[in-house]
Amino acid sequence: MTLHSEIAAVTDRIITRSKPTRDAYLALIGRARDTHIERPAMGCANAAHAYAGTEEDRPALTAAKAMNIGIVTSYNDMLSAHAPYYRYPEQMKIWAREAGATAQVAGGVPAMCDGVTQGYAGMELSLFSRDTIALSTAIALSHGMFEGAALLGICDKIVPGLLMGALRFGHLPMVLIPAGPMPSGLANKAKVAVREAYAEGKVGRDALLEAEIGAYHSKGTCTFFGTANSNQMMMEMMGLHMPGAAFINPGTKLRQELTRAAVHRVTQIGWHGDSYRPIGLCVDEKAIVNAAIGLLATGGSTNHLLHLPAIAACAGILIDWEDFDRLSKAVPLVARVYPNGAADVNGFEDAGGMPYVIRELADAGLLHRDLMTVAGEDMTDYGRKPRLDENDTLTWADPGESGDDTILRTPAAPFAPEGGFRILTGNLGRACIKVSAVERDRWTIEAPAAVFHDQAAVLAAFQAGELTRDVVVVMRFQGPRANGMPELHKLTPALGVLQNRGFRVALVTDGRMSGASGKVPAAIHCSPEALGDGPLSRVQDGDIIRLDAEAGVLEALVDPAEWAARIPATAPPEADGMGRELFGLFRANANEAERGASPLLTGMGW
């Protein structure tokens, strides 16, 4: 099937725009490949420091004749998604020996959970934890001890951060290794119903806690299609996993065999073999476009409108929201997974999962097949589903037809003819909106503004009945330079209740919304942000705000002369405590949301 003309055009636009920076990046990794530290030639004292912590692998390390794989892990046992990684390094060392290689834990990276910090001070460290992870990954790989790497990470900022750091070592072959979602617990819609009942005071804390624990009950990622699971979807679309690895549950034999195969594969794609596949060449313009297509086709997380530009920039590739907007008009919505449907990711996997999505998109000319993937010659392998045969040997097979057409459909008969993203512009700046879970009659909201600077004030106003009307909640000074761009998912139950009561409700903010953002229309990532006299700083209570996802408009319906004459609101004082002071340098140097909201990219010269 010929590639869709608009996908080809957007890809060409990105290639042309990125040529100077991509050329510079490829030259960088070329120099790294030619001048990297060769372990056999490393100073004896240097090598001895690196070998001192191991006994069983020391003879092989000392001989320096086989690949040494650096494991970068996000393990902690406070978070369900990362708890399964506890035993991975010792298992991976055994599997490396099977392939005649060695493996060492190169370093750990922090892994925080927006679900834990949601609505609290720690959330202001969340976005920049991504950049901290990138720095930590670079430090882990900086010792010159490794000829390949395995990246263990799964959740919101961890996978983007791992990739951002890893791409600065783009001459090394690397595989990303997920751990999978927890088994299904309390259904997501039932959980949301309890949350909304709690917001209205109809149930107490005990009922809410019971529901939340029923939903988040085991090791593995949360089962809704938020940022964590969108990460895994994108890694499949970019060909950076073993095929079909994204949504296999932890603790299963199939999960173990996929991880084993990933370790073996790293040893096969190193620079001494005939299938050298460095991550800096695997992540090219076509891979980035595939990731964006996957987000649109499955209704993935809005957080990746920040993360994907940041990841791309670390490989010298420049993308913007117009690219997403154009792709969205060409790519149909073929999946319904909560919050865009009733099913969770386990139901999605049972219905065919990513192998079905990739096969169908490829057959319809809606993704780039010709990628340098870690697994094979092109994306064909990723349209096949992993399974164990009667001897427990890992094999792959065609996923067949959709197991449930309320969850997965073909591009010829999709849930919607377009993807779930729109760009909004107007006198409030440039913003984006995810509409895949928003009812069409709510794509346009026109209502008076209620302006706030923190979530607690919104919730207090809701409890006092002050928002029981048509309203556009404007949450400003939530951008990357103001307070680190926290997610505002804590507002979702209250705004959902107002919408359920029949009111016309929307959110407009320079902050982020959760990957679980759903039925309430939300114009997010408004840029320029309010801090520094951005347009949101001029909004006043009562201004009529028009959010029109159909026409791509976001504006305050205020006389232009009055608008120009307004004095911008003053930002609230910076909060301290919870380590926020340590991230002042990050906030001061963060770029705009559309470019990734990252303080690190400035140092790269683009």
From TrEMBL:
Pfam families: ILV_EDD_C (PF24877), ILVD_EDD_N (PF00920). It is an enzyme of class 4 (lyase). GO terms for biological process: D-gluconate metabolic process; Entner-Doudoroff pathway through 6-phosphogluconate. Binds 1 [4Fe-4S] cluster. Residues 407-597 form the Dihydroxy-acid/6-phosphogluconate dehydratase C-terminal domain. Its cofactor is [4Fe-4S] cluster. PROSITE patterns: ILVD_EDD_1, ILVD_EDD_2. Residues 68-381 form the Dihydroxy-acid/6-phosphogluconate dehydratase N-terminal domain. It comes from the Bacteria. It catalyses: 6-phospho-D-gluconate = 2-dehydro-3-deoxy-6-phospho-D-gluconate + H2O. Its EC number is 4.2.1.12. [4Fe-4S] cluster binds at residues 155, 222. SUPFAM superfamilies: IlvD/EDD N-terminal domain-like, LeuD/IlvD-like. GO terms for cellular component: cytosol. InterPro entries: 6-phosphgluc_deHydtase, Dihydro-acid_dehy_C, DiOHA_6PGluconate_deHydtase_CS, ILV_EDD_C, ILV_EDD_N, IlvD/EDD_N. Keywords: 4Fe-4S, Carbohydrate metabolism, Gluconate utilization, Iron, Iron-sulfur, Lyase, Metal-binding. The keyword Electron transport does not apply. GO terms for molecular function: 4 iron, 4 sulfur cluster binding; metal ion binding; phosphogluconate dehydratase activity. Coiled coil: none annotated. Catalyzes the dehydration of 6-phospho-D-gluconate to 2-dehydro-3-deoxy-6-phospho-D-gluconate. Belongs to the IlvD/Edd family. This is Phosphogluconate dehydratase. It comes from Sphingomonas glacialis. The lineage of its organism: Bacteria, Pseudomonadati, Pseudomonadota, Alphaproteobacteria, Sphingomonadales. The gene is edd.
